[in-house]
Amino acid sequence: MRSLLRAICLLTSLSVCTCLAQRGNLPPFGTGDAVNNGSRDEFPNTTGMISGTVHAADGQQVSDVTITVRKDSRDILTIYTSPDGSFEISRVPTGDVELVAKQGLNESSEHISVMPGSNFVHLTLATSNGSNARGAAVTAAQLAVPAKARRDLEKAQDALHKKKLSDATRLIQRALVVWPHYAEALLLRAVMERQANSPQLAAADAEQAVGCDPNYPPAYFVLGSVYNDLDRNDDAIRTLDHGISIGPTFWQGYYEMSRALLRKGDFPAALRQAEHSSSLAPKEFASIHLVKGYAYLGMNNSSAARTELETYVKMKPDAETAVRAKAVLARLSSAGTSAAPNSKDNPGSVSSQSGASDDVPDK
Q1: Quick one: which of 92, 154, 241, 335 could link to 339 by a disulfide (CB 3.0–4.6 Å)?
Q2: How is domain 34-125 classified at the architecture level of CATH?
Q3: pLDDT above 70 for 224
């Protein structure tokens, strides 16, 4: 499950849907480096390593958990746990820090004093319905997957994490030979196909994944995202609506729904979906501000649009979409914040050289 949510996150970043290959937009998985995440001038010379695990109150393994390190009320790093719930963070500044584990609406935190060397912590995450709460219960189709196929997919995920795309492709295919109905393997391949600019192939694999496991929410989110890329907005809305109905606490579904509604010009509805996604998504997920900014532009709320677009540009100054966001901000400044945006300010027409899909946040 964690790998597919990572895929959707990648799908929500700029060049891959941007939920499995452009990892610069995503929290790391399993391991992290607190110093590399910020200015070295902000940290003391003495650091320690934090390793630990996250389990549910009943002792069961939990997945799809983010671990955030906070120091002096500031988030300095967010990573995802490994599939077994473990994590490791190197070079954490010594002294008091707060570790926050979050899975959907469930959250747990613990204050620890980091000492030089190794530090271990165990976090217990309360869930409303067991370790796989939030609409993420293991499906019957997942339970049927042979162990060999699972191992091959885990190796594929690791290869993808290391950007060994050919190895990942080979291992995914091997998993599918063992179990052709492996929805998670099909989805991982769909994300890679989308990264390779083959949306038709990605759509075919995602559609097959939905057929193999109709009770698996991420399958609908990946498929809806690919439909968005293909400008099949009505199909995207229908698909995402069903995915959200069976996985109502996954932020990715609401985000992709906001993209689809934005493309259709339903700006108030897009904003509502984006706000819902924002309440569940990691704080560092920048693209949600881009959606909100364009939605506000469509609603002729230049002041709110400016705030959201400036936030996005600050978070992702080097992103391709930041260039267009800066152009919109420049026009708003020249027209005055009280001026209603003209047609050039609406998503899809920021540049006379770009189509509708160019400026709607699509990755």
Answers
A1: 335
A2: Sandwich (2.60)
A3: yes
What per-residue string of b and e applies to 135-147 under the rule 16 or more CB within 10 Å gives b?
A: bbbebebbeebee
Cα–Cα dist 123/295, whole Å: 38
Percent of the chain's residues with pLDDT above 70: 75
Q: What is the mean pLDDT of residues 165-185?
A: 95
Which CATH fold topology does 1-22+138-246 show? Answer: 1.25.40
Contact 209/219 with Cβ under 8 angstroms? yes
Contact 206, 187 (CB under 8 A): yes
